[in-house]
């Protein structure tokens, strides 16, 4: 039981075998039951812990996953260990897309694009610095292990991949808007960068870097970045155009919702198909969809999509953390490592220190350079901000796990060292998520006691609602609509990015919105497409 | 790529192999892309064809599936035939649950329960009659084929399984409420019946039926029916209780939505786990959730769940029909059959005739018996209704396909006859869906020209909205709320089912609603949990 379309289409022979084996199906149903029941438990627990000061849903899910893993391990007498091996595909094909799409859909667009240059600097140069330091450190410290240079570079890439999912959970877009857009935006670019880095490790001989290889590398990155972004934007625009032209709401709300979800997923899968950065694609698709498509659909579709995307993302996040928790008990790997606990702890500690140093080595210098280009004092990234950015990006998560399994699951000859690397990755992921993640909220409260409206002074501070923390992030109509607000006038004159924003707004109103719809540009609705039941509820 | 949680947990060895094989992943991504793109195409086509008189989304999807299958077959030179083999698991674990749950969630509860006895009669006795006639006919006509008695009984069960999905698409709950509840309700019970039949075929020696076996059979069915229903009701009540007690809306809308979806899915999977009729379970879970849970959640969650369930169901339906269409070109099986086209056509035609006879043999007599028990003329099932019920239940769909693949995919010795049975099933499914399905709408228009409010005279005829045909089915507040309406008073005195309804309502108000919530029994909401954006839209 439990076969997905792609797989089904591929392995027909295996499939027909499986249809006849109803006994194996049964244990698969058991695991699905377990997973769904645990997800329910996570949701209820998360709700109950909501008021706790240390609230962090990911940690709850991780803890539940770890407990369940232990229980399974104990009840089966340590046999069913490999039942719980991390699946790269499950993660990249099904769990990650809704999370990143929702992030794009609900990101504060204006703030994101205003900090675009800083985000790009952190994401590209920062990731490279971090990658370099971790690889260099690993090469020198782990010299005795039987792994080659390619593996050390892979270690650099694995531990440079920030966990955007965890960042989203720990940093609140309302409470710490600048930090959120910087750290999360960096995570997006970081992903594109790691795709390029991985390809580069496989294709180039990185031990002899010369200027041509470096240029090719930069060209590769730019190409990948532009193609991925364009694909996402095109997919978003296409969905807006289709829904606006054909006026879907006339017949059925469900078609609109289905089309939005399917088009977004399609953009992700097409990007995967062409080995682009699917994360970047679906992120920009989400931004475009929230800017155009969302305004073209009926009222009930708007409420539905907004909440559905948030729910999907929420469930996927919970699932990932639970899964990582359950998966951490890969007992066969741990057994290999068991005989040399000192080495195991040593490797993990060294990696954690390298991560700390690697991140510090780019956050502080790059913030300094970024501050040099800013004119107003309110524009600059203060030291307390720098420390928080450094800290909030330390978590490593499912992406690192997936990359580690990809790199270190090979032929048996290197089995022992591969096992070391995988258990170390698991340790680093668990430690960073649990400890660093746990401490981030208190740290933010200590370092940034007041609501940080320093940099984005022109935007009104939105009253924080206790009710729907996850959803308030959706675009604030007033802030996006009018670039001429009194306090913003000074900024237009002083800031080039605001000028860009001004011309973009003019272009958007003159060319884009008439074609693709968007706020105020949707056709007149003759009959309210909301059904009587809905209306009844709202009036 | 593309592994689901259940599977992942099972085949870890296979998984690690797969992680390293990135080339096979790529073709899997291609098929996923193809599927999602085709789904988008189906939705757009379905929208464009909406105004057509012959509109039937399932036929569009089936046609697109067939075309794509042909194109793939031609482009790959007939090689990739087995890429498209029907997956029982994909269907039963992922596609069917949302469809049936949504049907339960949006069913008109009062009308369904008023016709409960007739539905049960059709579903149990009717399915048995149909099963008997088709099996008997097959045994006598197909005597020459090398298949044993068990197979003939399986043929009876396969072709007695009505296609609830197609029924839902062809019959409109608004236009033909009585027909919809009868035919669809029958389909629900029919499913429970076929599970029991299949178990019976495997466990008992049905060639020598005696009274003890018959009693055991009846006992089995009752046990299965009651257990499945109870499980569904308990799951629904549990979700209502949790959401009401813990007051989820206080913190997050997403948790409510996620919990409802997960609990419903969990009820389905638990039923699968204990070999109950999962369809029946999730159907009753949907009914209970729409009666209690739905009223306990926040306003935005109500809109979201209603539309999300409808969208999920819609996408799953489209997917199934497209998949059946693509799958129909199982070229290896067709090659075997190719040499004897006469026999192939013969088998399919005989099966179709048997289906027609088998259904006629129970619809008309059972309607007659049902009419004997009814007092008022308005209560009876007229001849035009009987003909429509007969016709609307003729379609065979994905359930028949799944059962046929399950039964006729065995060792190679019987390969030829098995291939015959599978191609015949495909032919019957395609023919019945395309031809019978195509003709149902016109037939309904000819046989029942006026809005058929004959039997449910007490319910006000709800104005038909053009906008959201799929969603209007949700419970009509007035009809459910008050059993004392003037025209209904006479019916309470004359009809036992209305008396049952009256006492149920009293019990519901006194015991159930105070505990589990429901309309009018939800706690006072101090702050509207809808976020400002939502409110802005509705006022």
Largest interface: A-B, 109 and 109 residues
Largest sheet of chain A, in brief, is:
none
Structural class of chain A: mainly alpha
Can you count the beta strands of chain A? Answer: 0
How much helix is in the residues of chain A? over 70%
Low-confidence stretches of chain A: 1-24, 452-494, 524-539
- Architecture of the largest domain in chain A, CATH level 2? Up-down Bundle
What's the CATH class label of the largest domain in chain A? Mainly Alpha
- What shape does the CA trace of chain A take? globular
The succession of helices and strands of chain A, N to C, reads: HHHHHHHHHHHHHHHHHHHHHHH
Report the end-to-end length of chain A measured between terminal Cα atoms. Answer: 46 Å
Range of strand content of chain A: under 5%
What's the overall average pLDDT of chain A, rounded? 74
Count of DSSP-assigned helices of chain A: 23
Give me the oligomer status.
homodimer
What is the CATH fold-level name of the largest domain in chain A?
A: Na+/H+ antiporter like fold
What Rg of chain A do the Cα atoms give?
Answer: 24 Å
Number of domains of chain A: 2
């Amino acid at each position: 039981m439990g076969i997905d379309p792609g797989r089904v289409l591929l392995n027909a022979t295996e499939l027909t075998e499986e249809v006849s084996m109803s006994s194996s199906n049964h244990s698969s149903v058991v695991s699905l039951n377990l997973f769904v029941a645990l997800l329910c438990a996570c949701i209820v627990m998360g709700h109950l812990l909501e008021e706790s000061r240390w609230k962090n849903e990911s940690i709850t899910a991780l803890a539940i996953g770890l407990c369940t893993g232990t229980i399974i391990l104990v009840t089966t007498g340590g046999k069913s260990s490999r039942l719980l091996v991390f699946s790269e595909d499950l993660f990249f094909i099904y769990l990650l897309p809704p999370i990143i799409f929702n992030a794009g859909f609900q990101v504060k667009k204006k703030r994101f694009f205003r900090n675009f240059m800083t985000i790009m600097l952190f994401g590209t140069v920062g990731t490279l610095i971090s990658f370099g330091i971790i690889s260099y450190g690993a090469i020198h410290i782990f010299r005795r292990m039987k792994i080659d240079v390619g593996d050390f570079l892979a270690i650099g890439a694995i531990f440079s991949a920030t966990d955007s999912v965890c960042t989203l959970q720990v940093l609140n877009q309302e409470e710490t808007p600048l930090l959120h857009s910087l750290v999360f935006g960096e995570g997006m670019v970081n992903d594109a960068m790691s795709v390029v880095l991985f390809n580069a490790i496989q294709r180039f001989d990185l031990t002899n870097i010369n200027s041509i290889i470096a240029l090719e590398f930069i060209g590769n990155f730019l190409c990948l970045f532009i193609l991925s972004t364009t694909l996402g934007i095109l997919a978003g625009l296409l969905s807006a155009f289709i829904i606006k032209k054909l006026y879907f709401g006339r017949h059925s709300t469900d078609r609109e919702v289905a089309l939005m979800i399917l088009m977004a997923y399609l953009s992700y899968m097409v990007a995967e198909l062409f080995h682009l950065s699917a994360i970047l694609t679906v992120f920009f698709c989400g931004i475009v969809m929230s800017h155009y498509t969302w305004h073209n659909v009926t009222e009930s579709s708007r409420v539905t999509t907004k909440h559905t995307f948030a729910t999907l993302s929420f469930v996927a996040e919970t699932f990932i953390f639970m899964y990582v928790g359950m998966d951490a008990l890969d007992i066969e790997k741990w057994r290999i490592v068991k005989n040399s606990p000192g080495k195991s702890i040593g490797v993990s500690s060294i990696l954690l220190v390298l991560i700390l140093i690697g991140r510090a080595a780019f956050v502080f210098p790059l913030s300094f350079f970024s501050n040099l280009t800013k004119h107003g004092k309110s524009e600059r990234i203060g030291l307390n901000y720098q420390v928080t950015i450094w800290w909030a990006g330390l978590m490593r998560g499912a992406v690192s796990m997936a990359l580690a399994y990809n790199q270190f699951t090979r032929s048996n000859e290197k089995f022992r060292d591969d096992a070391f690397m995988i258990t170390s990755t698991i340790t680093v992921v668990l430690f960073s998520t649990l400890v660093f993640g746990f401490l981030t909220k208190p740290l933010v409260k200590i370092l940034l006691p007041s609501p940080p409206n320093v940099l984005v002074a022109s935007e009104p501070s939105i009253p924080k609602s206790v009710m729907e923390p996850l959803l308030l992030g959706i675009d604030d109509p007033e802030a996006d609509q009018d670039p001429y607000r009194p306090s913003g006038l000074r900024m237009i004159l002083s800031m080039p990015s605001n000028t860009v924003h001004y011309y973009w707004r003019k272009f958007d109103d003159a060319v884009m919105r008439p074609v693709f719809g968007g706020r105020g540009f949707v056709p007149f609705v003759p009959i309210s497409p909301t059904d009587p039941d809905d209306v009844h509820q709202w009036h």
